[in-house]
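User: Quick one: structure for sequence A, then sequence B.

Assistant: Sequence A:
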Amino acid sequence: MELRQLKYFVTVAELLHFGRAAEALHLSQPALSKQIQALEDSLGVQLLERTKHWVRLTIAGQKFLETAHRILQEVEQGIQATRQIADGEMGRLKIGFTEATLFSLAPDIIKTYRQRYPQVELIVTSGGTETHVEELRTHQIDVGFVYLPIREPSVAIRPLFEEAYVAALPASHRLARHKQILLSSVANEPLIFYPRSLAPVLYANFIKCCEQAGFVPNVVQEAELAQTRLGLAAAGVGITFVLSKMQSLSAKGVIYRTIIGEFPTLKLALAWRQDESSPVVHEFLKYF
């Protein structure tokens, strides 16, 4: 039994006329009759009763018509799904966002992507650069937003843009009355910063900038999450620093101020596996 024979049978069964069916299929009537006979022979069942004047389905033919419709529909759906997968329009995509990009980039990216590719299952996680690099290496995520530099030969990167920091102060702090603050103005203030162990390069650059401003920073507490640091700042524990895009995050009791003077920046990049073959991933990369 061949797929084309099913199509031929369905056409004859629906038109109940070999001549019109042959014309619709762009076949000669003898060729169509031969294919229907071959189908019946392969099944060992008569599907159609025919005379010179009429054609009708046997009881077995009526049942087989239902089966033929289902098979042809499933084949068509399978072909469509295969093409969608090949074009990156169907499948699964797991994206790792940093904390800042989860608030700044993720909403627009997720909304736009889901509208354009509704057949792709989108899974979102959050974490730091080291976490995302490891998750890429171990196939736990497909793409990840990271901060440069990274040193992992199996990971490809596409630089996006540079992000600046702003100071986050308790709303009642004496420096809050200024729209901008000098880095040197926090010389005697308790500071809350990102853990040295998780971002040694960032931490070293922070120390260097403070020293260039004429002081050694008084880091009283370290916290990985910006939300945690903002909560500590709101509680009056000290002044912290967050990426400028985090200002969209409403934090009660905290105000943001631009920093005057040299201060570390972060270069955001998109990362994926060098040997990635998924059409879904490569279609996503076209956004950037």
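Sequence B:
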Amino acid sequence: MLAALLAAGAAHGGEPGAATPQPGPPGPSAPLVMCYEDVEQRPWSSPDASGLNFELLRRVEKQLGERFVYAPKPWRRCIEELRLGTVDAVVAAADAKSRRSFAAYPLRPDGSADPARALYSDSVNVFLRAGGRGSWDGHTLVAPNQEVAVQSGYLISSVLRERGYRPRELVKSAEDALRLLQTGMFDVALLQGAEASRLAVSDPRFQGKVVQTGPPYWVLPLHLAFNRAAYRRNPQRAHAIWEAIAAARASADYRRLAAEAGVPEP
């Protein structure tokens, strides 16, 4: 009887001044559905869910007893589904004010996204049509008619627009963007990822017709970004995953794997 009365009192808030019960560690949860881009971004990701990002996330799954389900889609669609809450998270998203209303990132005390808990950092590089009228000296980007080819849905388009350029999001892959230079449709392309650099050097279609120039236009950390509603349902789960990402990135076996893929500092 006493136990029943105590239980009833606890259900109505308990004794004044009693300690508030603290939530324990999250219990078994449903798998998290994660969207990722369905084009090659080697060595980080490929459409078949291979690459360093997935090696890293597999280590996180093992450490935390998690299960992730991956959905490859065009990048613009991934961001839209993150906004709608159709997916729980997206793999390798840059932070931006325009995304903060629907996306949650690991944050530092000053409110900025924490690069230490990002999946990796990537570069947006400048590619020019050989013999064209574009140029980049590390400070000033010159593009005829201010037109710059970019990958569809990438944040660089917003950056360029704010700086007075006219980004043209006609293609989603680095390969197709380089074709736009090769055929003379554009003189300048700003492309994210090592895949564009690899193709420009090694693919006979682009050798002598497309050149990568100067330092990167932009370097940005890319995160596992959660849908904000999914984050609110279990913030401890999201933070545990972000912390595990940082730990896995620093591990000797992942660093060895990254070095074998040509990434000296993952």
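Residues 1-27 have pLDDT under 50 and may be disordered. The two ends are 61 Å apart (CA to CA).

User: Thanks, that's what I needed.
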